[in-house]
Amino acid sequence: MAATHPEIHPIIRKLETIFKLDESEREALLRLPMQIADLRADQDIVREGDRPTRCFALLEGWSCSYKMNAEGNRQIMGFSISGDMPDLQSLHLRELDYSVGTLTPCKVGFVEHQALLDLCKNQPRICNAFWRETLIEAAIFREWLFNVGQRSAFARIAHIFCELAVRMRAVGLATDRTYDFPVTQAELADATGMTTVHVNRTLRDLREAGLATLKGGVVTIPDWESLKQAGDFEVRYLHLKGRAEAA
Q1: Out of 44, 224, 232, 240, which could bridge 245 as a Cys pair, Cβ 3.0 to 4.6 Å?
Q2: pLDDT in tens, 115-146
């Protein structure tokens, strides 16, 4: 039975930050047959080497895309928030080359590949929106690679705080310059190529500089312009549209 409940609204909300949908396209997305699942924190949703027959949308919570080496060291390559579809490329790539795991308890919606292929055939503009979504995800991966490889520790964390501030505001999950950031220092270390001790010290430096604070899983940014400058942050790689970009 097609899912028509509010949990799938985040998909539309997210897509409309990058692509203008009309009413018939929104209705087509709402009619997607979706299997809803509640997952605990620290649980893999898909794993490297999987050959999935369905994609998932993150409806609530936070997840991360990552790779892990033989020694068990993890590199987080991106954070996903409500409305994101982190494994959308599995629609056309037979085998996954990365894993996606939950950071918090999550509600996810699984959609069979065939249902998505049928949707793309019947609604070619939605196919374009999905294509744009995967291209933007690739742009974020490139930015994160540059972040780890070329920016200082101070700039790495500043940049991530800026990115999530913009993405959270675009989908209505942030007010002013404050937003939930339920990421541990160990997870932030995996995302920035730093040790947890170095992350802790850098967070203190950001706080003492008056640029950003992380307390109780909430990021507060008192000085947005200075944080952007410190993180060498330029919004263009997120390719947002209209009001989402203004946010």
Answers
A1: 240
A2: 999 999 999 999 999 999 999 999 999 999 99
| pLDDT digit string, tens, across residues 187-232 | 999 999 999 999 999 999 999 999 999 999 999 999 999 999 999 9
Asked whether the domain spanning 152-246 has the same topology as the one spanning 6-143, the reply is: no
Instruction: Please state which CATH number belongs to domain 152-246.
Output: 1.10.10.10
Q: How far is CA 82 from CA 26, 102, 118, 154, 210, in A?
A: 17, 12, 24, 27, 29
Q: Where are the beta strands (DSSP E) in the chain?
A: 35-39, 44-46, 54-60, 63-68, 74-80, 99-102, 106-112, 174-175, 178-180, 213-215, 218-220
User: Hey, where are the domains in the chain?
Assistant: 6-143, 152-246
Tell me the fold of 6-143.
Jelly Rolls (2.60.120)
Task: Please count the residues of the chain.
Answer: 247
